[in-house]
Sequence to fold (395 residues):
Amino acid sequence: MILREQYLAKLRMFREKDVIKVVTGIRRCGKSTLLEQFREELIREGVGEDRIIYINFEDLAYENLLDYHAMYDYITARLSDSGYTYIFLDEVQRVPEFQKAVDSLYIKKNTDVYVTGSNSDLLSSELATLLTGRYIEIRMLPLSFKEYVSAFPGADKKELFRNYLTYGSMPYILNMTGREAADIYLNGIYHTIIMTDIAMRHPQTDMSVLESILRYLMHNVGNLVSSANIANTLTSSGRKTSYNTVEKYISFLTESYLIYEAPRYDVKGKQHLKSLSKYYAADTGLRGILLANRESDIGHILENVIYLELLRRGCKVSVGKLDDREVDFIAENSDGIEYFQVAATALDPDKLKTELEPLARIKDNYPKTLITLDDYDLGTHNGIRTQNAIDFLLK
Fold:
């Protein structure tokens, strides 16, 4: 079991603090395992098991608690009289109006509440309505490459990286041997998300249109797209689709964490733009099972991986617009801003010049980096550093 130290550190930071800890993320990215790891850590520190209440609402054993009154009664009957009671509610969105019970548990003395869920709209809207200012969200992603490598001590990192790009980074994918087993497993995750997190929550959804939109976005990872273009493309192929439908279905896909949106940012105007965005897959393995020739666009797959890594590092990520040129990523966090270009290779001098030019046009003094798969760094050019992708991911 890979220790998800990055996320454990956040749970420790807010342990016994007066906020509800909400862990969100795509199905099977490791949320349940994270709670289990934190629970084991508490026990090692001397917290008695009688002070830990753990409920996984996908477990049939807890089916009788899918009513929020029953869940509340079950938990309050087990609250400890000595010290904090740690309450873990896994996939809590399965309980209708769960937020009412969570709020009541939160206001009780000496309760420390942790919940997970696989739908951002549910956890951001219902919880936010009732619990404004009383919860923090920890957004979880599948394994980073550094975590992935830790499962294979001594293995060749280039080979591991090829597998990471091809099969993705869902934690359990490490137990799959061969492409057939991996694809069967990933197909299972995909159809669970589609049917459970989207179809059941939005029963009027035309699933064939939704999946066509998803495939379009997956195929165009790394390209600027618009809802109008998607609607026109589907309509011209004989499936009449409106702009509003495309917008709505994209929101369903982002809610379920299948895709992430990177908006455009005007570097000179210092403002976000409403037109056009880029979309990235939550997992390159899931993207692969939806597309033929999964390995034919290595540059865009690499861009997807770097995007997710920047999110893991706590960055707000945008796509930069600079006159008629594009900066792949503007990454902003509490430490400041960094600019990134991503390319499969820049060994050719003309290609290197093309990749460096947008970064060179930016006149501020924030760090600028070109990331490639080339085996060695290509030096520093007018303050712009180059870095191998594997080295960047293992920092």
